[in-house]
Automatic annotation (TrEMBL):
PANTHER family: ALLANTOINASE
Keywords: Pyrimidine biosynthesis
InterPro entries: DHOase (IPR004722), DHOase/Allantoinase_Hydrolase (IPR050138), DHOase_cat (IPR024403), Metal-dep_hydrolase_composite (IPR011059), Metal_Hydrolase (IPR032466)
Biological-process GO terms, alphabetical: purine nucleobase catabolic process; pyrimidine nucleotide biosynthetic process
Annotated protein name in UniProt: Dihydroorotase
A GO term from the CC aspect: cytoplasm
Length: 417
C-alpha cells in the first residue's frame, strides 16, 4: 500500500508532533515520513477526510466472537470486520467458545483462522480447565500457541490458592492473569445493581460489595505471590480507589472499564429493557463519575467494548431469564468522546496493546503502519443501521454519540468504515 494521509491531527503523546496537523506517507505498508506538508508522489493514493485525526491503532481488551461453537452469534470473519470498522486494529478474544479455549488446539484454531486479516486477533486462554474454576488449564502450552492472557470470562477465581498458583506459575513466561471482579457467593440470582432501582423494580441485587471483596482479595494475593494481574471491567468508585492504592504500592496490576458502565447508569433499567442487562451491572451515577475520573487520572488503564454478541432469543425474555451482555464496539468511540477528551480516549483505547502483547502502541517511522483514522466532530443517533455485528443486542440504540471512525490502516491494508 502506497498512500499519503493529508492534514491529520496527530494524537500520540509520545510523538514530538502530538497535537499538530501533519501529512503521513506510507510506502509498501511502512510509515516512511511524517511532516507538516508532504508533496504527492506518483502512484500513491491520497487519503483525506474532514477534521481528520490519526492515532496508533486501537486495542480492545475484551471481545467475544462466538466462533468456534456459537457462529450464529458471531463469526471470526465478521467479528474482525466489525472491529476494523469500529476503529480497532487488534482485539483480545475471550475464551467463552465451544469448546472453551482451554488448550493449545483452540488457541491455534483462533490464530490460524484469523491470520491475514488487517485486525490482529489475540486469544485469551481460559485460566482453568473448561472454565470451571477447579484445575488450572494448560497455560504455558496456550502461551506458546499464541494466548496473551488467561482468565475465565465473567467468572472470578473462587479458590484463592488457585489464583496464587496461577500468579506464581505464569511468572515463568511473563504471563498475564485475569480475575473477574465479583464474589459470586454474594450474587446469588442477582440481576441488577443493588440499590434503589433494583428495589423499585423488584429485582435481586448485585451488591457493589461483591466487587470490592473480590478485588481486595485478589490484590492481597498479587502482593503475596507476585506476577501480573489484570482486573477486567470494574464498575464502582471503591474499585477505582482499591486499584489506585495498589498501584501506589507498586503492584503490577491493570484494569479496564466497559464502555456501557461508563455511559449508562442503572436508571436505564426502569423499563426492564434487557439490552441494559450487563455484567458487571450498570451502577449509580456516582460510580459512573468515579470511573470517568479514574480514566482521566490513569488509574483505569483501558476502555473496552466488552463486546458480547448474543442471539436475540437470549435477550427477548423476562428480565430475570435474559442473558447478560451487549454489543458495543460500533459505539465505543462515539460514547467515549461524550465523556472524555480525545487525548484520554486515545490513550485508553491504545494502552491495552502493551499490557497484553508487550508491544507499544506508537506512531513511528520505519515501522509497519498501524493506525486508526477518525474525527471527533459531529454527532449522530446510534441506530440499527450502525450495527455491523451478526447479533443485534445493542444497549446503545437511540443514544447520541460523538465523532466518527473513518477506518484503519494495518498490515498493508486500508479498511474504511
Amino acid at each position: 500500500m502506497n498512500a499519503r494521509i493529508v492534514q491529520a491531527t496527530l494524537l500520540d503523546e509520545h510523538h514530538e508532533l502530538h497535537g499538530k496537523k501533519v501529512d503521513l506517507r506510507i510506502e509498501n505498508g511502512t510509515l516512511t515520513e511524517i511532516g507538516t506538508t508532504l508533496s504527492a508522489k506518483s502512484g500513491e493514493e491520497t487519503l483525506e477526510f474532514e477534521n481528520l485525526m490519526v492515532s496508533a491503532g486501537w486495542f480492545d481488551s475484551s471481545v467475544s466472537m462466538g466462533e468456534p461453537g456459537y457462529e450464529e452469534r458471531e463469526t471470526l470473519k465478521n467479528g474482525l470486520e466489525v472491529a476494523a470498522k469500529s476503529g480497532f486494529t487488534a482485539v483480545a478474544v475471550n475464551p467463552n467458545t465451544k469448546p472453551v479455549a482451554d488448550d493449545s488446539s483452540v488457541i491455534s484454531y483462533l490464530k490460524n483462522k484469523s491470520a491475514g486479516h488487517a485486525v490482529d486477533l489475540y486469544p485469551i486462554g481460559a485460566l482453568t480447565q473448561n472454565g470451571d474454576g477447579i484445575d488450572l488449564a494448560e497455560l504455558y502450552d496456550m502461551q506458546q500457541a499464541g494466548a496473551v492472557a488467561f482468565g475465565d470470562y465473567q467468572h472470578a477465581v473462587k479458590n484463592p490458592n488457585l489464583l496464587k498458583l496461577a500468579l506464581q506459575y505464569t511468572q515463568g513466561f511473563d504471563g498475564l492473569v485475569l480475575s473477574f471482579p465479583q464474589e459470586d457467593d454474594l450474587v446469588i440470582k442477582g440481576m441488577a445493581n443493588e440499590g434503589e432501582t433494583a428495589i423499585k423494580l423488584g429485582l435481586k441485587g448485585i451488591p457493589a460489595l461483591a466487587e470490592h471483596l473480590q478485588i481486595a482479595r485478589d490484590l492481597y494475593l498479587l502482593e503475596y505471590a507476585g506476577g501480573k494481574l489484570h482486573i477486567p471491567t470494574i464498575s464502582t468508585a471503591q474499585s477505582v480507589a482499591l486499584i489506585k492504592a495498589a498501584k501506589e504500592k507498586g503492584l503490577d496490576v491493570s484494569c479496564s472499564v466497559a464502555i456501557s458502565n461508563l455511559f449508562f447508569t442503572d436508571d436505564a433499567l426502569n423499563d426492564f429493557d434487557t439490552r441494559f442487562k450487563v455484567l458487571p451491572p450498570l451502577r449509580t451515577n456516582e460510580d459512573r463519575k468515579a470511573l470517568i475520573a479514574g480514566l482521566e487520572d490513569g488509574t483505569i488503564d483501558m476502555v473496552t467494548s466488552d463486546h458480547n454478541p448474543l442471539d436475540i432469543e437470549l435477550k427477548k425474555l423476562e428480565f430475570d431469564h435474559a442473558r447478560f451482555g451487549t454489543i458495543a464496539q460500533e459505539a465505543t468511540l462515539g460514547a467515549l468522546l461524550q465523556l472524555v477528551s480525545p487525548e484520554v480516549a486515545v490513550k485508553t483505547l491504545t494502552n491495552g496493546r502493551e499490557r497484553f502483547t508487550g508491544n507499544k502502541a506508537q506512531i513511528k517511522t520505519g515501522e509497519p503502519v498501524n493506525l486508526t483514522l477518525f474525527t471527533t466532530e459531529g454527532s449522530q443517533i446510534f441506530t440499527k443501521e450502525h450495527i455491523r455485528s451478526k447479533s443485534k443486542n445493542a444497549a446503545f440504540l437511540g443514544s447520541e454519540l460523538k465523532g466518527k471512525v473513518y477506518g484503519i490502516i494495518a498490515k498493508n491494508q486500508f479498511i474504511a468504515s
